[in-house]
């Protein structure tokens, strides 16, 4: 039963870091003048068309997702190592309990790049997920408001 909770604390930190940076970035980007259009949390510019607004939202979602991954990558690496350590309990694995200790150990043994192991595929995955997720949400909300 305890195996189900392996890395739960690290997963919470990873998700808190990603979600807070992602949604804060989306808030800032949606209000900024990007692609010659000022956003505002919806389709404020009817002349832009639904397709262009959805495309703009997807591009901003991708950028925010990649940016947020810069902040959660060390927690993700530590989480993966904590979960792997849980599977190999008898192998003399050190410091598998504390997230802070795991981060410190990775930094001491592998340096700063060790905290960002596998960053490129992770950033692409989270960027695409952020783009599709926010674009689908905004498009759904636009459609629901249109047909009310």
From TrEMBL:
Top-level taxon: Eukaryota
Keywords: Membrane, Mitochondrion, Mitochondrion inner membrane, Repeat, Transmembrane, Transmembrane helix, Transport
Family assignment from sequence similarity: Belongs to the mitochondrial carrier (TC 2.A.29) family.
Membrane topology: Multi-pass membrane protein
Subcellular location: Mitochondrion inner membrane
UniProt key word Transmembrane: yes
One Pfam family here: Mito_carr
SUPFAM superfamilies: Mitochondrial carrier
Gene Ontology cellular-component annotations: mitochondrial inner membrane
Organism per entry: Strombidinopsis acuminata
Protein name: Mitochondrial carrier protein
């Amino acid at each position: 039963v305890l195996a189900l909770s392996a890395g739960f604390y690290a997963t919470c930190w990873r998700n808190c870091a990603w979600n807070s940076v992602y949604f804060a970035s989306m808030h800032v980007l949606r209000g900024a003048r990007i692609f010659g259009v000022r956003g505002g949390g919806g389709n404020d510019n009817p002349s832009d068309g639904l397709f262009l607004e959805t495309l703009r939202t997807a591009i901003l979602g991708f950028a925010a997702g990649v940016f947020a991954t810069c902040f959660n990558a060390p927690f993700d690496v530590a989480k993966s190592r904590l979960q792997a350590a849980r599977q190999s309990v008898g192998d003399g694995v050190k410091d598998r309990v504390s997230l802070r200790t795991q981060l410190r150990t990775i930094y001491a043994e592998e340096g700063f790049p060790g905290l960002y192991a596998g960053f490129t595929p992770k950033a692409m995955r989270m960027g695409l997920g952020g783009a599709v997720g926010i674009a689908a949400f905004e498009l759904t909300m636009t459609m629901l408001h249109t047909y009310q």
